[in-house]
Amino acid sequence: QFYYYLWQLTAIPLVRRLHREVGFDVVHHVTFGKCWAPSALAFLDGVPFVWGPVGGGEFAPLALWCTFGLSGIAYETVRTAARFLAALDPLVRLTTRRASLALASAPETAVRLKRLGVKRVEMMPQLALPPEEIEVLSYVPPPPAAPVRFLSVGRLLHWKGFHLGLKAFARSGLNDVECWIVGEGPERRRLEALARRLGLADRVRFFGQLPRQRVLELLGQVHALIHPSLHDQSPTVCLEAMAAGRPVICLDLGGPAVQVTEESGIKVPARSPSQVVSDLAAAMQMLASDPDLRARMGERGRRRVEEHFLWPVKADSLTRWLIQVAGKLEEPKEATAR
Question: Within a 13 Å sphere around the CA of 157, how many CA atoms are in the beta-carbon half?
Fold first, then answer.
């Protein structure tokens, strides 16, 4: 945070000098992509300022904090306090007041931006895939008929929610189904112990950190992605799974809730630990027992990525926003994310 502030503060004179030399029609802050830190571009008077896409408004519901260990609770407490203090920061307030348009990567961030005083907020997830990546993922083969396998990929952190996925897998009673977890992190020992305690040691496999090509090979052997993250901005793994024709089970929170639709996966509300585990288990049962449903969701997910989450599509939409904010174009007919 200290480095970020120094970077932005020392950038102000440079930004002003460049504006005197060039005369910008519009300025656009891209990174760091979070709504609780200021932007040097907000200090240019009279120039339309576009902020984002930014995240940082996503949060783990308080009712689910009891599922974290002590370190997880401490992390969430500090993160929540930092977001609260940022709302009082005069530089953040100036950034929100000066923004002609703020692009939010998730619904929770959109709400927070409006509360901070941004006059105009639109939804635009931060990530997309290049066309060549789509082509590679389109060649991921269909999985074998049996056994049905679920895959989770990501850093093993408390807020990724892998512990909720394991509890749901145990609750599902799917004895002939496997769960694969790819990733490394401080929660691994805790998750392995949880799998043993739940009697899942013979059906849950931890792969650790793997090269990307190996992950794609595993993707070809699984039937669905389980991504129970509690405050992700815009995870790449959900887009990759959808592009490979795999349905996604996620929580109805943050970026995944924007990426995944009712047609391409199953979004579970996050009201309480027992409700989340029960609903995730029901989603697993549904997909495990219905290959036609998996195929339909997989195809619709692939189509959604191609239509809304390709970099050329996002670039065209962003360009229209920038030109429109600069006063050169009428209101765009439609936003990037739906």
Answer: 12
Neighbours of 290 (CB within 10 A): 12
Distance between CA atoms of residues 316 and 75, nearest Å: 38
pTM: 0.89
204 bridge partner residues: 179
Contact in structure between 140 and 220 (CB atoms under 8 Å)? yes
CB atoms within 10 A of CB 257: 20
pLDDT per position as a tens digit, 276-320:
999 999 999 999 999 999 999 999 999 999 999 999 999 999 999
Q: Render the burial of 18-41: b for 16+ CB within 10 Å, e for the rest.
A: ebeeeebebbbbeeebbbbbbbbb
| Sheet architecture: strand order including 27-29 | 27-29, 49-54, 99-104, 121-123
**CA 221 from centre of chain:** 24
> Are residues 258 and 233 in contact, defined by beta-carbon separation less than 8 angstroms?
no
Question: d(Cα 119, Cα 54) in Å, to the nearest integer?
Answer: 15
* Distance from C-alpha of 98 to C-alpha of 298, rounded to nearest angstrom: 42
Helix and strand numbers, DSSP H then E, in the chain: 13, 10
- β-pair partners for 129: 310
Other beta carbons within 10 angstroms of residue 294's beta carbon come to 21
Phi/psi of residue 321, each to 5°?
A: -60, -45
